[in-house]
Amino acid sequence: MNQLKHYTAIANELQQFDPEKFELLEEGINIIVHKLKFIQIENRPIVEIVDFSRPAIDPSYLEEISEIAGAQNNPLVKESENAEILIFINESPSFLSSLPELLNNQYSDYKAANNNNVFIVHKPEFGKNKEDFLLDTEIFAEIIQSKYFVYGHEGDHWIKFSL
Predict the structure, then answer these.
(1) Which of 22, 46, 55, 117 is 20 to 30 Å from the Cα of 78, by its Cα?
(2) CA torsion through residues 134, 139, 140, 141, sign
(3) What pTM, to 2 d.p., does this model score?
(4) Which domains does the chain have, with CATH numbers?
């Protein structure tokens, strides 16, 4: 796993100013990491994340939480059309109605679109509040490694889209 700069910064701050929240964060992240530690990197799904939020989320934040959540983040093998999971981040309710056309026009050659592995994260302020690092990671874990994680965020913060 690459350097966890966002987690480390948040954890250091919490450890100093709110040790109780630090313990919750550390425990939650450790549970995710522990459950996934025996899944080899090459056996993890390739995930494409399309961020339509404004302002855009820091791409390194998205990469970090997706990697913790069990995605394969290897730029040498990551070809977008081979993405097994496609995640759109957009909190606008109208986005759902425009998604079929978007998939047809721009993502029809994607493995994820052809296999109905398309998800929408619609949680307000997703990726924008450091206090939500664990929640954001749990959301991705439910999507990326659904066999291992059920936190109950489906429907409230994300949905699976089927054509």
Answers:
(1) 55
(2) positive
(3) 0.94
(4) 5-161 (3.40.50.1980)
